[in-house]
Amino acid sequence: MSIEIKISKRRISYEKAIKFLEKRVVEIKNNKKKELLWILEHPLTYSAGIRYSDKEILDKKIKVIKTNRGGKLTLHNPGQKIVYFVLNLNRRKKDVRRLLNIIEKSIIEFLKIYKIDAKADKKNIGIWVNKNKIAAIGLRISRWIVYHGCSINIANNLNQYSKIIPCGLDNNKVTSIFNEKKIKIKNYENKLLKIFLKNINEL
User: What residues does each domain of the chain span?
Assistant: First the structure.
């Protein structure tokens, strides 16, 4: 099945990206556009999923963008890579759990390239290195069209998590590729893309 690929070199604002995703959902419903896989970064942004609580905002001065994805509060910032999807499960398997497993598997495969042993957790959605979260996942479904996606901490400023309780967790329980291996990886977007495309084709 044909998927449009976008890799943005410039940082894209969170609001602009979500508007683009929501527009694509409508276009796919009307059979006007292809599915989408989009790799990008956001500037510093705090976003809240539908299950967040105001108590999880520790610094009341920060701006929090409310969104319709699943999950709680999270952080997006430079050095964190976002993988967004708009996938039409009407033309694939109508199995959101399987899609979630594919996203988890893809992130784990990507991290293995850098000798990071990561795992999924059935109780806490996301990808973990030991007890620290390295990737977050949040999805939204509209008439079997799934959108939003995942974020992977590459070399972002983890101190900025201290202003929130991310995903309902202790904000010290986050990590990144740089934090784990003290390496700055470059030109990895195509590797990430290749892994996700291979695994999405199983859906």
Answer: 3-200
Q: What is the b/e burial string over 134-158, where b = at least 16 CB atoms within 10 angstroms of the residue's CB? A: bbbbbbbbeeebbbbbbbbbbbbeb
Query: Residues 171-199: what's their mean pLDDT?
Result: 93
CA distance linking residue 124 with residue 121, whole number of Å:
5
Give backbone dihedrals phi and psi of 115, rounded to 5 degrees, phi first. Answer: 60, 40
Evaluate if residue 1 carries a pLDDT over 70. no
Question: Is the distance from CB of 107 to CB of 136 less than 8 angstroms?
Answer: no
- Is residue 167 among the annotated active site residues? yes
Catalytic residue among 40, 167, 169, 192: 167
Rg, the chain, Cα only: 16
Bigger pLDDT: 143 or 49? 143
pLDDT of residue 181: 96
Look up the CATH number of domain 3-200: 3.30.930.10
Interacting residues of 89 by C-beta distance below 8 A, sequence separation 6+: 95, 96, 99, 141, 144, 145, 146, 203
Q: What is the pLDDT of residue 69?
A: 85
- Rounded distance between C-alpha atoms, residue 76 and residue 177, angstroms: 15
Residue labelled with tokens 């893809």:
106
